[in-house]
Task: structure prediction
Amino acid sequence: MSTPDGLGSTTTGLPLLETGCGLIVGFVRPDGAPLAGRAWGVTLLDGGGRARVIIEAADVAALGYPPDGLLGVWFAVTGGDVKTLATVQAKGPVTAVDSMTASDRTNLAAHCEAFFSNVEVVDMRPRHLMERLVPHDLLVVELDVVEVYDQTPGPNAGTPLADGAA
Amino acid sequence: MSRGPSDELTIGDLERCFNGLVPVVIATVSADGVPNVTYLSRAHPVDDERIAISNQFLSKSSRNLAENPVASLLLMQSDTHENYRLTAVYERTERRGPTFDRLRNDLSMIAALTGMQGVFKLSSADVLRVLEVEQTVYVSDDELAASAPAPGDGPGPAQLGELCARLSRCADLDSLVRITVDGLAELLGYEHSQLLLLDEDGTRLFTIASHGYDAAGIGAEVEVGVGVGAVGAAAVHCTPILVGNVGQMTKYTRSIRRSFEQTGDVGPGHEVPMVGLARPGSQLAVPALALGQLVGVVLVEHPDDERFMLSDAAMLTVVASIVASTLQTLRAEVRNAGAFAVTPTSRPAPTGTAEVRIRHFVVDGSTFLDGEYLIKGVAGRLLWSLLRQHREEGRTAFTNREVRLDPSLDLPDFRDNFESRLILLKRRLDERASPIRIEKTGRGRFDVVVDAPFRLELMGAEAG
Result:
């Protein structure tokens, strides 16, 4: 759902992650240090109880986990609306690391189209600059959504919105 | 220039990542292994090894850094979208000093845009030492060359010198303000500029000259509260304020304002209007100071982001200083010139036939010509006083010295700004091609020229 001027989204809470917003992720390395990255699409499953997040394969490699080592490690994904900066963060343990499916590729294309269009119109940034950012090698991280926070800039930043899928 | 993976990068190589055009990403992890990832409006370079972030909305990130001092940040070069990942370690929190002051000024600028100067204040700045800079998105040299702007002959000392020479030849205030904005465009390439002067009580600024705006903006009386926007921040801090990302900052401030309104910490307010371009990308406001006192502000704008640099601020500071000093000198000269008594001149018959209706509101000096707003405040009261004397006594010739003593103008003793208001009135009448004009006849002297019959309508308390 878009704002009256057709830009940005009126969606709030967890569903905001699916609206073509700017997506960023936070991993935890084996030594407990963070690793920041970008994401290229989110699909909410089970009414928001789980989420599939498209990420760069190189980020997972950079973490240095053994195969399946990322499972159970907590992961965070944050989405910020390009126009309003309304922002939401979901956190939970990783339950799967998958290759991209056909459905994920459709989601990737839809997310990029919506996100780039918003940035092009709102921030007047050329699309070809945005396209440079999309990695060639992508993976999907699936997580159980355990915590959801309002991260909109301002005094409410960090306020819990709900637990799990609620 | 793009760098290969093997090149070692430092903070100094990431200059265009710190302009606030693209939000910074910061990820931290709590002691029990829960990550947190969020956007920052911007990060600030401290030296070649350190960056600083303001932590007014980063309570979770700050808590995590206290428990686990490593952070991972994403920065993006605004012009090429090259992407960098920094690994940094929390080093210290500062509550004073140059780094803190820089972040505080940045925040104060944001607060000023939202009219929340009293609410939105920096409490501390976190300094992080960068351990590693990794470039994660590369752009080839060919792509960079294709998108780079062609090198041009920007203005330099010769053009600055010529403008200063022109300003120093100005013998009156009207010429000074006109030459300032015209010269900024013609010689220094600033196509959109405004010269604003401080008002009588030192709390507001009014535009006395502008260049490069559409018809609706030319000469319009735009008053800006000190402490509001780039212009207000430059006036309050008496330092140049460079905003290369007006659009991004406006989004950010709107979002913050909404959040504060939801908490009830501030009431719903009107967004503070930005003066000038409808959608500026870059703004640079430079205070005009003379003898340690703020006289006004020079504002230049550009529709594109990141058009101004520190060298622009330095160049405009030279111009603004000369304008301020000349302005004060002219004011003093005019104040001391001109006899009190002026031989009354006979009122020439108006050449026009259509009657002009002048409506003046006592409450705020608002004055309308044929139903169209002209001016308010001191300048409005001044026009009313002059026209009343013209009608009742047939006077056309006046001196600044006598008129400024008119108690109806309500001028303060310590900074009456009379000459600026007179020029503002003259420019507004000229802009409107009004049949009523003010013409300078000598230093500290002027005529009121009326080319049409007019009717005076006083509205408000005194009218009854």
